[in-house]
Design brief:
This protein has one domain: Outer membrane protein transport protein (OMPP1/FadL/TodX) (Porin, Beta Barrel), CATH 2.40.160.60. The protein is globular and about 65 Å long. The protein has helices spanning about 1-15, 20-25, 35-40, 50-55, and strands at about 65-75, 80-90, 95-110, 110-130, 135-150, 160-175, 180-185, 190, 200, 205-210, 215-225, 230-240, 245-250, 255-265, 270-275, 285-290. About 10% of the residues lie in helices and about 55% in strands. The longest helix has 14 residues, at about 1-15. It contains 4 helices and 16 strands. By secondary structure, the protein is mainly beta.
Length: about 290
C-alpha cells in the first residue's frame, strides 16, 4: 500500500511539470501565520508582528520587534509540512523597519522529499507621512523562490530552479482605530521553467480593520489570485483577559471557518490557529515567538 501511495504522489508531482495550470499552484498562499489562520487570513491591515513580511510589507513599520517560528501540516497531511520563520528589527531614527523571512513547504513520503519549495524574503517599511491623527506607511520586499522535485523511481532528476518576486504594500492609519491596507505579491510576474515556463502566482489584497474597543480587532479583506475569483476574508480578534486573545473568522472560495488563540508571557508569544475545508481535514498551525 505504501508503494502504491508513493507512486501516486510521484505521478501527481511529475505531471505538474507538464502542466502550467497545475504547476502554477506552487508557492501558493499557505497562510504562514497561526494568528492569521485563526482569522481566516484576514490580516493585511492588522498584521503588527514579524509575520507581516508574508502578508503586507507596508505594515512592517508598525510591527513589533521580534522573531516568530511556525509549523503546520496542511490539511493534517503527514507528507505536506509548512514551516516558516520571520525576524523584524527597527532601525534607528526614521529609517523604518527591516525584516527577514523564510517559508519551506515540503512534500515528503517514506523519508523521500518529492517536492521542496523555499521562499526567502527580505523587506523594508517606513513612515511616508503622518500627523497626530493619521499615518501612511509604505513597504517593499523581495522574494527568492527555490523549487526542486525529487528523483523519480526511474532515476530521472527533474532538477531545481530559482526565481525572484517583488512585493509592495501600504498601510494607512486613521485616528488610531481604522486601518486601510493593500498588498501586491509578485508585481514583476516571475516565471520558472526551462523548456516550458510557467508564471508564479500573483496576488492582490485589499483590507480594512477597525478597533471598536481596546483589545478588539475586526477585519475584512478582498484577496485575489490573478485569473481566479476574488475571495472574501473576515476575522476578529479579542483580548478577553490581559495577554490572552481569542480569534475566529470565515472566508470564501473555498468556504471555510477558523478559530484560534494567542498567549503572551514575558515576551514569549504562543499562537494556535485552525481552519476548515469543505472536503479536506482541518489544518492546524502553531507558532512560537519572542518580542524584544
Amino acid at each position: 500500500m505504501k508503494k502504491v501511495s508513493f507512486v501516486i504522489i510521484t505521478i501527481l508531482l511529475l505531471s505538474s511539470l507538464c502542466s502550467a495550470e497545475i504547476t502554477s499552484n506552487v508557492f501558493g498562499n499557505y497562510i504562514p501565520s497561526a494568528r492569521a489562520r485563526g482569522m481566516s487570513g484576514a490580516f493585511i491591515a492588522s498584521c503588527d508582528d514579524p509575520n507581516a513580511i508574508f502578508f503586507n510589507p507596508g505594515a512592517l513599520a508598525v510591527a513589533s520587534q521580534g522573531i516568530n517560528l511556525g509549523y503546520s501540516r496542511l490539511f493534517n497531511n503527514e507528507f505536506e509540512v509548512l514551516m516558516n520563520g520571520a525576524l523584524t528589527y527597527k532601525l534607528p531614527g526614521k529609517f523604518g523597519t527591516v525584516a527577514l523571512g523564510i517559508q519551506a513547504m515540503d512534500v515528503e513520503y517514506g523519508g523521500i522529499k518529492l517536492q521542496q519549495e523555499g521562499t526567502y524574503s527580505i523587506a523594508h517599511s517606513f513612515l511616508l507621512m503622518g500627523d497626530v491623527h493619521s499615518q501612511f506607511y509604505i513597504g517593499y520586499g523581495l522574494n527568492l523562490y527555490y523549487l526542486k522535485f525529487g528523483e523519480t523511481v526511474g532515476g530521472i532528476d527533474p532538477g531545481n530552479q530559482t526565481s525572484y518576486g517583488i512585493n509592495i504594500g501600504a498601510l494607512a492609519t486613521l485616528h488610531q482605530r481604522t486601518h486601510v491596507a493593500f498588498s501586491v505579491r509578485n508585481v514583476n510576474n516571475p516565471t520558472m521553467g526551462s523548456d516550458q515556463t510557467f508564471d508564479l502566482p500573483q496576488y492582490l489584497a485589499l483590507g480594512v480593520s477597525y478597533e471598536p474597543y481596546d483589545g478588539v480587532i475586526t477585519e475584512i479583506d478582498l484577496s485575489q489570485k490573478l485569473g481566479e475569483q476574488t475571495k472574501i476574508l473576515a476575522g476578529i480578534e479579542f483580548e478577553i483577559i490581559d495577554n490572552f486573545w481569542l480569534r475566529t473568522g470565515a472566508s470564501t472560495y473555498p468556504n471555510s471557518i477558523s478559530g484560534g488563540f494567542g498567549v503572551l508571557f514575558k515576551g514569549v508569544k504562543v499562537d494556535y490557529g485552525f481552519n476548515t475545508h469543505p472536503v479536506m481535514p482541518l489544518t492546524h498551525q502553531f507558532s512560537l515567538g519572542y518580542l524584544f
